Structures are given as structure tokens and as C-alpha cells.
Amino acid sequence: MANQEPAFTYERCIACGMCVTVCPVSALALSVVGKDDINTSFPTLTDRPCTGCGLCKKSCPMDAIAMEYI
Ligand code: SF4
Ligand code: SF4
Questions:
Q1: Does residue 43's CB lie within 6 angstroms of at least one atom of ligand 1?
Q2: Ranges of each domain in the chain
Q3: Which CATH code, of 2.60.40.420, 3.40.1380.20, 3.30.70.20, 2.120.10.30, is assigned to 4-64?
Q4: Is the pLDDT of residue 37 over 60?
Q5: How far apart are CA 65 and CA 49, in angstroms?
Q6: Is 6 touching ligand 1 by the criterion CB < 6 Å?
Q7: Which of 10, 18, 20, 36 is deepest in the core (most CB within 10 A)?
Q8: What dihedral angle (degrees, nearest 10) is formed by the CA atoms of 15, 18, 50, 36?
Q9: Can you give the pTM of this predicted structure?
Q10: 46 C-alpha to center of ligand 1: Å?
């Protein structure tokens, strides 16, 4: 089981989708977050198990991802 998973700082995120693309287990997807900005999709964890590999964090050009222990 993973002992860490990504946490997103959406203020920094430019919704490029890179983290979603690199995730080897499809544990991320772009989806609408929040009610005030319905045109913007941000990455969120899906129901597929994250392995905690950290590739998404490494791929992010905006340093918007931190790995957090769970
Ligand atoms: S840590 Fe690895 S498995 Fe988890 S969401 Fe990021 S890329 Fe996917
Ligand atoms: S890689 Fe970074 S900037 Fe791009 S969608 Fe993911 S969190 Fe946002």
C-alpha cells in the first residue's frame, strides 16, 4: 500500500494535465473543482489506487504538487 499521495495547490496549478499524463496507474484525472470557476479542470485523485511513486510531483512545471504522508 502507498504511504503517500499527491496534494495539490490549485492556486499554482495551470491545469496543463502533465501529472495526469505521467501517472502510470491512472490515479489522476482532470475534473472540475469548486463551484465558482466551472470552466477550469484541475487534477484530482480517482478511485484507482495511487502507488505513491511521486512521478506526478516530478512532472509538475509549477511545483503545485506535494507528496503527503497518509
Ligand atoms: S504518486 Fe504516482 S501513482 Fe500516485 S498519482 Fe502520482 S504519478 Fe500517480
Ligand atoms: S502538472 Fe502541475 S500544473 Fe500541470 S495539471 Fe498537474 S498539478 Fe497542475
A1: no
A2: 4-64
A3: 3.30.70.20
A4: no
A5: 17
A6: yes
A7: 20
A8: 0
A9: 0.91
A10: 11
> Residue range 1-7: average pLDDT?
90
Q: Which residues contact 8 (CB under 8 A, 6 or more apart)?
A: 42, 43, 44, 64, 65
Q: CA–CA distance from 67 to each of 10, 12, 36 (Å)? A: 14, 15, 27
CA of 57 to the centre of ligand 2 (A): 8
In this prediction, residue 1 carries a pLDDT of 64
The rounded Å distance from CA 18 to ligand 1 centre is 12
- State whether the beta carbon of 20 lies less than 6 angstroms from ligand 1: no
The answer to whether residue 61 scores a pLDDT higher than 80 is yes
